[in-house]
Amino acid sequence: MSPVQFDSFGEPILPASDKEPTTASRVALRSGVGLFWVMVLAIVAARAAYFDPSLSEKVASVASLFGHLRTVVGV
Fold this sequence. Notes:
By secondary structure, this protein is mostly helical.
């Protein structure tokens, strides 16, 4: 019997099985990864489609206002 190994948090590490992953496991993994990237692409496309340039101008003006305020206060 091999000695028990522990991870950095003190939890015992289970021995790795030598079995190949099942077909269902591979299908679940690939569909999960595919769903993740589809969601990433959908979010990025939606952000690009509904981007409002005036919002970034408003944020920049608020940031410059706070910069001037910090200069006046001396912080």
